[in-house]
Amino acid sequence: MRLIHPTVSRRTVLAAATATATAALYGARAAAAFPTPPRLFGAAVQARQILVDKGFRDAVIRECGAITPELELKWDFIESESGEINLRPADQLVDFAMRFGKQVHGHTLVWHRGMPAWAVQALLEAPDWRLIERFFALVLPRYADAIGSWDVVNEPFAIGARADGLRETPMLKAFGPDYIRRSFEAAHRMAPRARLYLNEFGLLYSFPQSVAKRAAVLRLLEDLRAKDVPIHGLGVQAHLELARMDAFDAAGLAAFLDAIAALGLDIRISELDVTEADTTAPADVRDARAGQAVRTLLDVLDAFKGRRALSGITCWGLSDRYSWLPPQSESAGLNRGLPLDSDLREKPMFHVLEDFLRPANRGIAGA
Questions:
Q1: What CATH number should be reported for the domain whose range is 8-360?
Q2: Which of 77, 171, 216, 286 has an alpha carbon within 20 to 30 A of 89's alpha carbon?
Q3: Are 259 and 225 in contact (CB under 8 A)?
Q4: What one-character-per-residue DSSP string does 66-119 give?
Q5: Regions of the chain where pLDDT drops below 70
């Protein structure tokens, strides 16, 4: 569709009308989109991968209880030019998920790297919260009965710039730190049934920045909960790096997760993958190293296994065939940091996840 909106208020009216008119597309089949009990394992995928690659599509159907649109729900993907709205790829992924009984996790509403350039310029020139609500209105009502959870605010922290640890983003510059509260409240108004998450990376290690970031995230979540902001959980991005696993902070991460759970919040392990350090070894050795790194993370999660606090594990991709991770050198080939290799064969990482999830009878491999 194409929307023409010369002013912010006009944008808001047109977007809300469009969302209201299209929300019924998914309401009638909502029961199929939310299986009970919820499956824990999911992967980020793109619509074009599902549409053109039958083997990969079959692997997603077989192994995943949930999918996360990797690109299709980001603002700059939906509306790279002001008024040029493209929701067809998101619709295709939602239709696929509902057809095969998969949950959908929405990613992401507010992210500094996911904002179109025209919106950044507009916010910095004349901050107007209606522009943010206009984007929310494009997607949240439309998928209110099909997408059960959302990353509302993604990667808002960057330790060092400010005492509160928040990243200097266009949203922060335009609206101040309160943009986080306002984002969750707006999302809840438009999708009152959805579970809403903050999603952050860099929380896994013993480096001073990781320790400080965990503390800053916890302070923010405590503040939001004290103010009764409608936030339901934290996405802990798990981009494991083999070169840094010596600094993996199991004790610090466990204490952090305990504190998050004590607030009554869900914990999602989001964006799980492994970046290799040495690509000269044989493939089986490389795969074993990646699997061991994932096992190290899952050992920390063991106390949460089968409990409500752990609401999901999502890999940022299912197969090396479509990995976002770059190769470490031209001769190394694909980074081997996902559960399936480029030929869709199971690797040690797959079986580590399978073993972890099997007691709950959910997720990967036949749930």
A1: 3.20.20.80
A2: 171
A3: no
A4: EEEESSTTSHHHH-SSTTB---HHHHHHHHHHHHTT-EEEEEEEE-GGGS-HHH
A5: 1-39, 304-308, 328-332, 359-367
